[in-house]
């Protein structure tokens, strides 16, 4: 026993543990000071530079991704200590599937392993109370990763201290298109309930039928029928949209020519739900936003990207 103790003790290991304890103490102090000031509720992170780091350090690229993951977790812990409520990480875009097959495979293996590690980490799940949410097109992921994602969400569902949103197989274009399609379908269902079929005040029966069947827009551009149905209804969805989004809607109509009004309006509702800003604020945001990376990033790039894509049914 004594022999084993004398083998494990070394001045170097003693120095290393002393050094890390001192660093930990100062980090803790620094975070306490920072927490006195304003702390953002939501921090979004784009994982980037893992391969460049690996190439520069002459290590395997998979190891570069592994180090990137470790950094993410320590950043998450620091955010949680500061009182940040949401950390959103853009970990894998739909476009990333176009990377070489062996890299995609290695990343998928890493995701599966790390999602399970998060679930099994006492530190993350119990001490930090991390709740995991996976955002994206889960159907595009291999079944083992999808299952790991479901496990992580289920295992941390009860936690509430900090939410870790992991964007996997995600792009904001796909998200916007899907949400618009979903809202369109709900809207059209509401429309068909709210408006008696064949009412003389409504659009022609032909355009009404087209809207109900979920077309992207009215065939004839801004047919009176289509606009009248939208503007005159009292459903909350419609009035919300009309209330603060008229500028956005009309700009969108001008830009897209014959894209349907239904979609312009739905986009307005969605922008509001995204960040709670008014249509005009959102537009100002659009005009001033820049940077390549923002284009595909959730929240910041959403509206900008939407304006540059034409929704298709
Ligand atoms: C569970 C969980 C959160 C797992 C995370 C897995 C992980 C590390 C994903 C990052 C993948 C990725 C595309 C990183 C970007 O760096 P890059 O490859 O684009 O590097 P580069 O900019 O140097 O080319």
Structure notes:
A 4-stranded parallel beta sheet has the order 1-2-4-3, sandwiched between helices. The protein is an alpha/beta fold. The protein contains 15 helices and 4 strands. 61% of the residues lie in helices and 9% in strands. Residues 197-313 have low confidence and may be disordered. The protein has helices at residues 2-8, 11-36, 50-57, 61-82, 101-120, 122-127, 143-156, 172-194, 205-212, 224-232, 236-242, 246-256, 261-275, 279-288, 302-307; strands at 42-46, 86-93, 130-135, 162-170. Farnesyl diphosphate binds next to α3, α4, β2 and α5. Farnesyl diphosphate (FPP) binds next to α3, α4, β2 and α5.
Short description:
With 313 residues, the chain is an alpha/beta fold. The protein has 15 helices and four strands. Helix 4 runs parallel beside helix 5 (101-120).
List the SSEs and their pairings.
Elements: H1 2-8, H2 11-36, E1 42-46, H3 50-57, H4 61-82, E2 86-93, H5 101-120, H6 122-127, E3 130-135, H7 143-156, E4 162-170, H8 172-194, H9 205-212, H10 224-232, H11 236-242, H12 246-256, H13 261-275, H14 279-288, H15 302-307
Parallel strand pairs: 1-2, 2-4, 3-4
Helix pairs in contact: 3-4, 4-5, 5-7, 8-13, 11-13, 12-13
The protein binds farnesyl diphosphate.
Farnesyl diphosphate binds at residues 47-52, 65, 68-69, 72, 89, 91-92, 96, 107, 110-111, 114-115, 166.
